[in-house]
Structures are given as structure tokens and as C-alpha cells.
Amino acid sequence: MGDGVLAAQGVPHTPVPAYATDLDGRPLLLLPKDSALVKALDGEEDLPATLRICDVAPVPLADRVRGRAWLHGWLTELPPAGLRAAALRLSRPHPRPELLDLAAEEPPRDGEWTVLTMDVAQVEIEDAWGGATLEPEEYAAAAPDPFVAIGAGILAHLDSCHRDELKGLLPMSASPSGAPEGLPEVRPLGLDRYGMWLRCSAPSPDAGGTFDLRLTFDEPVSDLLGLRRVYRHLFAHATP
């Protein structure tokens, strides 16, 4: 999970300390009520804006940004009746104290925080392999990745306990010397239902630079049990 920033015409860029989506995929955005953007909504039915999100790897790396997304649409403020459900959804990925009051049975009307939602008109995405533009129907039909909530913990575990096994997943052609000791150092960068990203760094400056490698699974994985089966198969056939 990376940082989120809202941009709207005539309003300073506004950091979003917590964001999630509702059951229909609409972004839910936690903001302080005294922010310039929330004040710009006062008296308006909606406000055109862009939500920029950076996808940041949980593993400490020199360049941790895996991709970026820009969601263009119209912002509205949730009515008090919707704040509790929104705060509970936001608290799952972002257990922040600011959400405690909003998640109360009757959220305080004079609280310091509120939740905005966005009706998405278009989405742009970009990563190391290219970019794409999604229409609202495509965005709404997309299913969340099964590892979005637990992927960070899995990657941290692989990085701390299984770096040698990850190196063994590389083809011997990745070694300039043709020997296992010439293989790049490998760190886990990303995980989804279709595969993994690996950050590969040459063991010495003379052996080349740093590059990212996409390791595609034979078939999409839908749960943790299936992911463990994939890992066992991959590590069993890794280079010794």
C-alpha cells in the first residue's frame, strides 16, 4: 500500500492518510475536515478531482515504487449515515485512531475527520512493463487480488527467510559466469494471483546493473493454500 494524493483545480494537493473501496469499488478517502479540498466541497454537489496512488513495495529497497495509478472522477462527502460502514472498511488496511470516532454507532457531527467518496470516470495505471487506461465499466468489473491484504507479510517473510531459494528460481543464463555464484542477488518485489516480481541485483558492479524479473505462475492462484503449493513446486525445481 502506497501513499495517496488528491488533486483538484484551484486546491493545493491534498495527502490522503487512509483509503479503501466500498463494496461497489468506489474509493473511500479519509480527510481532515479543515483541509482545503473538503472546504472546496462545501455547498457543491461534487468536485472534479484526481486521486494519485503510488504502489510501494513493503521490502526495503533503493526504489520501492512498483507502479502508479491515477483515478479521475467526482468527489462527494459521505453523509453521516454512511460514515460508520466506511470507517470500518478503512480500518482494515489502515488501523488509525482517527477512525475510532467515525466508526462509532453515532459518529460525532463536530468531529475533525470525514470520508469522501469518488465516482470514477477513468483510471490510468503504469508500471515497469507499461501502462493502460481503464473505462469505469472495466474498473468496476475488476476483482480485487486475493493477496492484497496479506501480500506485504508474505513478501517480508520471503525476503527475511528465503532469499537463497529465490535466487535459485533464476535461469543460469542470468549468471554472467554461467555458474551459480554469479547469479544476481534476489529480493521479492511484488506478488499477485498471476505471479511474482523479483528485484535482481548483480553481485558486483562489473557484472551488470539492477533489473526486475516477472515470474509467472502456471495458472492463477486464488488463495494461500494454492500459493503454498506453487512455492513448493518452484523451490523443488530451483537451481541448487
Automatic annotation (TrEMBL):
Q: Which segments cross the bilayer?
A: none
Q: Which Pfam families match?
A: DUF2470 (PF10615)
What is the top-level taxon of the source organism?
Answer: Bacteria
InterPro entries from the entry? DUF2470, Haem_oxidase_HugZ-like_sf
Which residues does the UniProt record annotate as the domain DUF2470? 152-228
Name this protein carries in UniProt: DUF2470 domain-containing protein
The species this protein belongs to is Actinomadura nitritigenes
Taxonomic placement: Bacteria, Bacillati, Actinomycetota, Actinomycetes, Streptosporangiales
